[in-house]
Specification:
Blueprint: H1 2-12, H2 22-33, E1 38-42, H3 50-53, E2 58-63, H4 66-75, E3 80-83, E4 96-102, H5 110-122, E5 124-135, E6 146-149, E7 152-156, E8 159-162, H6 166-172, E9 177-189, E10 195-206
Parallel strand pairs: 1-2, 1-4, 2-3, 4-5
Antiparallel strand pairs: 5-10, 6-7, 7-8, 9-10
Bound molecules: S-adenosylmethionine.
């Protein structure tokens, strides 16, 4: 996983372009309403989305790719980027008021997804809030490649993707209080000038 992402950042640079996700503005509004001060961003990439949050909040990004971290420190010099895997974050780590996690969750098997959510929620203060996005089962890539688990496909060599329906997404977060889910379409303009519209889902909730 680390090599896959690092090679992509080396070869493609700012892979998803300069525009942040529209979901980060939604998350920012919800974080402000909830008096959030500190945010953890797992899988922060090159800081495309952290940059929107770091003008109002104290943001730490955890990112597995050292190449992405180099780009991120140039792109968003207010956030603190930590090199490492979200799976290796200690449960004694500092606690955050909120988590924003964009398109990381669907990259793993079921056991890993459950571990990812558990690890992230452990990093929250009591009543801390989370906002995750992931691939939807309505995305055009659904069904491509070998199905290695239910609704999880190896849709590019060495890269998994799980495609969530709404009930499945809610079920993944059943240990917390789910407040809202929804669907969103995102158009990406890749650094090689190709365009693609992705169908995503988001989930917003609170640590019990
Ligand atoms: C689909 S990209 C999304 C990047 C970023 N959230 C964005 O939208 O610009 C997934 C990101 O997660 C990172 N990543 C993958 N596995 C990780 C892990 N175990 N811990 C931390 N980051 C990881 C990848 O290097 C990549 O930057």
């Amino acid at each position: 996983m680390k090599d896959y992402w690092n090679d992509r950042f080396i070869n493609e640079g700012y892979i998803w372009g300069e525009q942040p996700s529209k979901t980060v503005y939604d998350a920012k509004r919800l974080f402000a309403l909830n008096d959030v001060k500190t945010i953890l961003v797992p899988g922060a990439g090159y800081g495309r989305n952290t940059k929107i949050l770091s003008d109002a909040f104290q943001v730490d990004g955890i990112e597995i790719s050292p190449e992405a971290i180099l780009l991120a420190r140039q792109w968003d010099n207010r956030s603190c980027f930590i090199e490492g895997s979200i799976f290796e974050v200690s449960s004694n780590n500092k606690r955050y008021d909120a988590i924003y996690c964009y398109d990381l969750l669907h990259l793993f098997t079921k056991a890993e997804r459950i571990k990812l959510i558990k690890t992230c929620i452990q990093q929250l203060e009591t009543s801390g809030i989370y906002y995750f996005t992931c691939f939807s089962n309505k995305d055009e890539s659904y069904g491509k490649g070998n199905e290695i688990e239910e609704n999880t496909f190896e849709y590019k060599k060495g890269k998994l993707s799980h495609f969530f329906d709404e009930d499945d997404l809610i079920d993944h977060f059943k240990e917390s209080e789910v407040i809202e889910t929804g669907e969103v379409e995102e158009k990406f303009e890749y650094s090689n000038n190709e365009n693609r519209i992705y169908k995503l889902r988001y989930i917003y909730g609170m640590k019990n």
